## 1
Amino acid sequence: MENTVLCVRWGDKYDDTYVKKLKEQLEKHLTVPFNFYCLTDNPKEEYDIQLPTVWDKYYRADNKMFWAYRKCYMFNIDKYFPQIKGSQFLYFDLDVLIHQNIDCMFELDVYRPYIVRGWWNDAVNCKKNYGQIKSPPLNSSCIRWHRQQLSLIEKHIDKHKEVIFFTYRTIDNYFNHFWYNIWEEDIPYHERERGADVGKSIPAFDAGIDFLQGFPKGYFYSWYKGNIFPDDMEDHKLRLDHKVCLFNNSYNSPDDEMKDIEDIKKLW
Amino acid sequence: MVDYLKFTPEISNNWSRAWHETQKQRPWAFKRLLDASTESQMESKLWLTTELMSADISSKNVALLGGWFAHIITTLLMDEVNVDTVTNFEIDQDAKFISYKFNRRYKPNYKAKRKNITISSLNENCDLIINTSCEHMFPMWKFRELNPQLKNSWYVLQSTDDDQYDDHINCVKDEFHLAEQANFTDIKYSGEKKLPNGMTRFMVIGR
């Protein structure tokens, strides 16, 4: 099984340093062989691959949100990036700090793809705000899947792009509505009773609601939001017993970038 | 004119149990249930019922799009307009669950289904489509495009120009704009109403 790690960089929010730093961290914390590629709008290095632009016309600058749908091209490797090698895929955002060996991420059984479940989010709040398309429990800073396993998401986006890009300003909200089951996230997949509340089996919501699953607790925490709600929520705190620290400062937020935080610079 | 809801013992039974069970089983949804039960919510549904009855449209099977808890509107449609069935298409699992509790007395003629109607077509045959949440979703021409089998059905649409909320992703400037978004060519009613909460709502009945 050939392992591949991807990252995506476009625009000027992150410079080349972030890509190089991510690659260095992977070389330090991944002992299994892996390929590395950066999908970018400005290829310069040998690992860079040109990002498609077919969805760019749907980007609405007036939304004032970081438009991360460009990540979703990588879900259909065979369609957009046939030159990319590998069968087992791992994606990282550029603003992550890896603390320890992450070989285990390639050892996960991906019968369902993994995405970051932000355990720092209050699940009750996520459910409460579901209809208002806010407070998603998910975070797409790291995703683990088998080569074409996520192509159905890319196809779904492409087929309904007009509606999806209009309705969901962030991909995490989109994933939350179509591919993740917040109501039954604590129930093992095979024990979920879809439609049990009306006394009979009903097909899953638009077929995909039970698709994505969250990485286990202890893998990721958030620099700006904490770790696990409600018990371990101190922010701006390093947790070196975890595998990865996520930064994810929001669009136009006053939060510092990771390259400007002294504690982080020493480890990065 | 319909200016009140007949609060029968049967409604009292269903609704008091629904409020109690929501508080007990899904407490996170309680605040939203309050939001769906305000004076303004009642006013806008009474307005809809009044104009629908004046429009003299004969409808038996209603699809509610994004009907939320559907407690007020279902009662008015069943008891005042005398429709046969109401099916509520909602994305929110809590809303689906709670709406069944409020509308127990209409079983099996009230149904709630979890479906995103802006990307999936309906399998149900409905002669009246009601969407009082147009500001929360993609313009209605998409729904009509997805559902050519409903070309002869009538639509009742409501929306607003109040864009102060993040989830109001599709506000309109007036009732004509709302009709235009749905590509209506036959309009039975259009108007606007200032609600007690200060919000202006627009309504159009057409196809």
## 2
Amino acid sequence: MAIVYNWQLGRTMSYWYPESRPQRQYAAVFDLNKCIACQSCTLACKTTWTSGKGQEYMLWNNVETKPYGSYPLAWETKLLEMLGPQTWQDGKYLGRTIFEAAPAGERVLGWRPDDYDYAFPNTGEDDCAGHVERGLALDLPHAVWFFYLPRICNHCTYPACLAACPRGSIYKRPEDGIVLLDQGRCRGYRECVKACPYKKVFFNPLTGTSEKCIFCFPKREQGLQPQCFVNCIGKIRLAGYISVPESANPDNPIDYLVHVRKVALPLLPQLGLEPNVYYIPPVHVPVRFLEQLFGPHVQNAIQTYLNAKDDPDLAGLIQLFGCTEKIVPRWKRQNDWILGIEEDGTEIVRVPLREPVFERPLFDERFQVARHNCP
Amino acid sequence: MLKLRLPLTLLVGAAVIVGGCRRHAVAPPPQEIQALLVKELPTDPTDSVWRQTRELRIPLLLQDLVEPRLLQPSTSYVAVRALYDGRRFAFRLEWEDATENADPGIATFSDACAVQLPQKVEAVLPAPQMGEKGHPVEITLWKAVWKKGPLLEKGIQAVYPNAAVDHYPFQAASLVPGATAQQEMALRYSPARRLGNDVASVPEKGAQDIMAEGPGTITPLQKNSQAQAVRTAQGWAVVIVRDPPAGFSPDSGTHVAFAIWDGAHQETGSRKMRSAWVPLHIVQN
């Protein structure tokens, strides 16, 4: 075991390999306030990557309803129960990660799903927490709530799958930090399936190898965002590159959301993997539930997001999500316009801070015709 | 001087008497595999020629040297018989295993066994745990799941017989089944097969050959080993026919090691029961 620094925990931790950060880390921000669980992302991924034999059950991208949905079944609650209650103090994690809690003989604390656990990919869909009581009024957070959690591989800085593979079949690309599983080298031991806390490595029973999300690396190499991003009709996703906090660049949209405004948070940071998909938490959900999923900074993130109506930079950048297929490495606001920019300053896309509103009179005097939405 | 010599003489005499008594006791079984020299090697575990060989019960150890380790013991021993035809070895491995684990699946694991020999005759034996850098071993592997045949060709119904799949892109009506273009497209959806990963295919002769220079270093070999298995009342009997180490001389013998995986115990990869090196010598009837 080596000692590495995990900025999401605010401390060093044990990991199987020494710290070796990529030249740049491909990352993403998902705005959970905008996801409607249409599953366009799921289908975009499925049709692109996992429509082969033995991949029928695989969902490299899935969207589940929280609190009751999970794919595979109980992927997070089972592990959290194994790990037991842990504590944060002043933004620093005092508990044990899954590397530090690894039992004797194991590299990582984990569990391997049964095939039954994959049999209900959309269980709990739209199931609410709470009861509708008499006198209930709409307030924040909602007393009765659910939200949608879209999930892909987190292409972690400290991947548990990579740590667990006894053959070194999983590697993290130095050029972009994408975590890949070598299909020529894997021997199907499924240690990665057991170790990944997000359960985003899947075993193909017909080829005998494990397979996982590749963050659409062939598209990234062409400067394009992944399939599940560009097919998102809710425009909830933005792909880019994240820096370590001390090198955060406000002109970088991911850095701005994660490090500068701290409005986007990692999923289950306490497990210690430093995941690189960040979530803007849903503002209507009780903070105590969200803190278990996204760590101790949820309240601040929600408050920052709620203030976005008076915060043109933040509101503007959120408008940039889903507006171009290209990866947007830089951004800036020019008055009421938000610009997505290449590294060399070339403009990629320009979106208005607020969509223009046109009022159409019921009767068009010019053409002497009534304008109805419904004929 | 006389005082000193007398006790020594007594001690030596006593040792001879005790030693003599032991020689008349039941001789312990040989802790070596005696490979019987025969003209022809059988591949069938039930072949009568195996009755002419001496069986050696080899105790198995937990693989608890490298992570991920096996900490709960399962198979306690493997009973081994061996034959040699002047060119190749045939090993017959038999072990107790109450459950047959030969079904493919997302969460199932196959029963399996392996025979390991040094890749070449060396003055120093490679490490018994899959060799070491510069001192490779060659391993012949058998898996129960292979008896199900080529899974990719059978499709998901090999795992879930009642599964219904609407469509695979490489089976579109516009493609001619079996045509080169169609097959190439199908391969793109099975990257492990496309890359020639040996685990994505069933070996023609029932065994896979691999070499290793330490844990985690398995590399496929193009050799010609064979395996055949039968399910017994108590477990498995498997015959593995394979080459001896390079430079092997029947006069000097070699060493061999074994590994057993119990699928019901979710044993796979380094989670296995293994033996130490066991000496092997050629004997004649």
